[in-house]
Amino acid sequence: MEAQRSSSSLIILHNATIVTVDSDSRVFRNGGMAIEHDKIKAIGQSGDILAEFSGTAGEIVDLRGQILLPGFINTHVHTSQQLARGIADDVDLMTWLHHRIWPYEASMTEEDSYISTLLCGVELIHSGVTCFAEAGGQHVPGMARAVELLGLRACLAQSIMDSGDGLPEPWANRTAEDCIQLQKELYRKHHDTADGRIRVWLGIRQIMNSTDDLLLKTRDTARELATVIHMHVAEIPYENQLIVKTRKVEHGTVTHLEKMEFLQNNLLAAHTVWVDNAEIDFLSRAGVKVSHCPAAAMRMLGFAPIREMLDASICVSLGTDGAPSNNRMSIVDEMYVASLINKGREVYANGTTDPTALPAETVLKMATINGAKSVLWDKEIGSLVVGKKADLVVINPRTWSMVPLHDSISSLVYCMRTENIVSVMCNGRWIMKDKKISTVNVEEILSLAKEASTQLLKRAGIRIPNRMNMV
Length: 471
Ligand SMILES: [Zn+2]
Fold this sequence. Notes:
This protein has helices at residues 46-53, 93-106, 110-126, 140-150, 169-172, 176-190, 212-225, 237-247, 253-259, 277-286, 294-301, 306-311, 323-326, 331-344, 360-367, 369-374, 408-414, 442-460, and strands spanning 2-5, 11-19, 27-36, 39-45, 59-62, 67-70, 72-77, 129-134, 153-156, 198-200, 202-206, 229-233, 267-271, 289-292, 316-318, 392-395, 421-426, 429-433, 436-437. Helices cover 39% and strands 20% of the residues. The chain has 2 domains: 2-70 and 382-437, Urease, subunit C, domain 1 (Roll); 74-374, Alpha-Beta Barrel (TIM Barrel). A hairpin with a 2-residue loop joins strand 3 and strand 4. The model has no long low-confidence stretch (mean pLDDT 95). Strands 1, 2, 3, 4, 5, 6, 16, 17, 18 and 19 form a 10-stranded mixed β-sheet that branches. It has 18 helices and 19 strands. It binds zinc ion (ZN). Residues 76, 78, 135, 232, 270, 321-322 line the site of zinc ion. Keywords: Hydrolase. GO terms for molecular function: hydrolase activity, acting on carbon-nitrogen (but not peptide) bonds. It holds the Pfam family Amidohydro_1.
């Protein structure tokens, strides 16, 4: 990236292919953009932007041959679980949850959460993410400290549970009221901090660990604070079966949530794999947003009815889930996997699949503007439009993985690798330039993470069987 600089805060990016993902899906073949402070001031043909703004610009960046995209939005990621990468591979779901993840999360300190979020953030930035929604983890203050430093935008939530079998000690005695008070305090301290980059949401880990009292209090508190609820919904058939049995409804989680008027347009439902047509209709009518996490779904949940949800006009976005469910925290990989598995799910009578299902334009929207709508931030992010925040990524397609390039949109979804992302700007500030993250010391984070993870597993008493034939 070549840049000329002076003391003005105005930045010009020119000579780029700009994929705006705006309401007309405009792509500028030789586009330019002017950025002032944290916002996009102008966007148009490169020559026009240069003519109007180059006299007052502080930095002029020539992006010849490169592609500009809105920053990706990862709508379901467990930043707390980054230090748990590799601790629960190839194990069944109950071992995964009760013997690996719960003991791990229950043993975390705030410092662990801070380091875990830093490590996760490094991977998110490299994959072009500028905004993420925390799925609900441990120690929001630790997450917030890391996000502030990383320069990312984030919606943070605490993992919240007030019931259920086998809960570890620190969470076992929390009442619904304790859960609400804890989150109100987090909201008061951290909401709208870090130059407006951090928002605090309410969390519900999942229905099997929530009383109806907690669900109702959460719904009402979200309304009172005008914030969003993040919840894992209908992940496995057993969840639906248990809800039918214990809450006396005819289908499962979504039917129960509909009956208690919990479904609202400020609910971000993660996974949402095991839903029937009536439940898709409930979600659609309420304006609930869905975070589709294709890699994690393939690993342990099943095929979510994404085409049906999109046909019902539900806003579906993309998430990576956590490191122990996926290992790769790259939204670039998720775009590729989402396109493949949703084509593969549409099997014709003759056994072939449907290559027209979930086309590249749809997948790209899921990672950008639908992500912004899912986190209720689309007035300011999700597309490259004048007046919105300058959250963007620069892609170098001149590599063996992307050449030749005939159609930018399909190449971005089917060919692009994380390694093609060279620079990332969030809130008008470069947080990665030429693949070097400028906000934190990555080498230091790697050392801290290795040490913290080892100590944490020891404290939690988690032993990973050694499957290597070490000689
Ligand atoms: Zn999750």
